[in-house]
Amino acid sequence: xxxxxxxxxxxxxxxxxxxxxxxxxxxxxxxxxxxxxxxxxxxxxxxxxxxxxxxxxxxxxxxxxxxxxxxxxxxxxxxxxxxxxxxxxxxxxxxxxxxxxxxxxxxxxxxxxxxxxxxxxxxxxxxxxxxxxxxxxxxxxxxxxxxxxxxxxxxxxxxxxxxxxxxxxxxxxxxxxxxxxxxxxxxxxxxxxxxxxxxxxxxxxxxxxxxxxxxxxxxxxxxxxxxxxxxxxxxxxxxxxxxxxxxxxxxxxxxxxxxxx
Amino acid sequence: xxxxxxxxxxxxxxxxxxxxxxxxxxxxxxxxxxxxxxxxxxxxxxxxxxxxxxxxxxxxxxxxxxxxxxxxxxxxxxxxxxxxxxxxxxxxxxxxxxxxxxxxxxxxxxxxxxxxxxxxxxxxxxxxxxxxxxxxxxxxxxxxxxxxxxxxxxxxxxxxxxxxxxxxxxxxxxxxxxxxxxxxxxxxxxxxxxxxxxxxxxxxxxxxxxxxxxxxxxxxxxxxxxxxxxxxxxxxxxxxxxxxxxxxxxxxxxxxxxxxxxxxxxxxxxxxxxxxxxxxxxxxxxxxxxxxxxxxxxxxxxxxxxxxxxxx
Lengths: 261, 312
Hints:
The complex is a heterodimer.
Chain A (H helix, E strand, L loop, with lengths): L4 H18 L1 H4 L31 H37 L1 H16 L2 H11 L4 H28 L2 H8 L4 H37 L11 H8 L7 H22 L5
Chain B lengths: L1 H29 L4 H10 L6 H17 L3 H9 L13 H36 L4 H14 L3 H15 L11 H31 L2 H8 L4 H39 L4 H11 L2 H29 L7
Helix pairs in contact in B: 1-4, 1-12, 2-3, 5-6, 5-8, 5-12, 6-8, 7-8, 7-10, 8-10, 9-10, 10-11, 10-12, 11-12
């Protein structure tokens, strides 16, 4: 895979954001929850690069912690969704029959409700638990992995190459690695990026309507809601989480970007 | 084909009822803390709630909760749209729902209309003049806009148009101008992707053999687009619009919360805070069923446009 300019830019931006999220705590030992009430709504200065929020908390460690949460939770969701989706997809494509129909039905059930609604209801069952967010988002995301895997592998399962492999007595694992995986891998990459950005959006949308994680946990969407009332006095504060989210999403979009014909 | 599609949508509607029923059932079972306190404080305000108010709420609850403790009974009630009364306001949920539904539909309808008004002319123009200035500008604009989630976009619009320029009210309801910001938020996010879809579809049609044959016959460009372009365009574009309903329902929940729009999404989010189970049930189910119904309409529309059914 050759890297086009836009992909390279996306990769660079994503690495910078990852560095900001995961390497900053090693250098800077700021506490995202510590308050300094004398410095409420302070503008950025040389002491604190991003300023202080309405409760006197330093924005730099807060933003870093929020990104860490978004990236971490989204990665976890995508990973579990991919595992579940690919495994069920492979079984569905290879064995077919009632197993295929059962899993497809399960997938359709998960998508009967719009995704956010399902996550909202799950979040209502156990408020303030990232576990429920994880479960809800994974439940929505796995279906896409399942459908794509199944649709990609179905023609290959019945292709002569695969049948020959079976007749020659190669193991199931070998057949998967030799025939199925090479067809699946390139498609999975796009799907992972796409799911990753929808997971990030879902987490912050839920934070924004205060149903996801609860204060004082720093989270991008939640920070926007908290800082919106201060948009007049301190617009730079509101812009920080918005910019962070924007950069994160655009870096993923750039990575997904196909060359224009 | 048609029957099969409709049957599938009906099955989906049953799934919606089952999913909402089961999830709210677990919700009631798993609620931590004292429900009566939360409902009482939702009713009287956090500052004015006292033990006697809580006792009153508890008395009301003991009746309704014991009866509903059988899961089948619970689902049966749902199937009859028998939601009962809101635990916070005490009003029958159906009455509130009817009003909220009309508000949500008005908002979603305006946004869809605005999206169509934005995407179709821009997308068709860009597709007819591929790689022109407008096409390239739209490409980058939609790439940028796609990376701004709807809630952030709504907030930026509030800050820009309502706070800085003071052109539009940031919240409020009842007049036409109150529609503008929320529906613009939804419409812009939809347009970001929609313009590309319309452009691609137009491009496919314009470069196809039958379209060039129209030119050879000597049809004027406008006639050609009307007679040979629009219908062929319509099927993929309508399918795309159909797929956006998931997105629209999700967007409505978030945007209504942001702009304090008195619709179902707003009601749902606030019911989740106040643990108002009947309202959660009713609004989640209404949103879910609305989603299925809209999909059904799109299926039917696609079928009418292109009876071959290949794309549906």
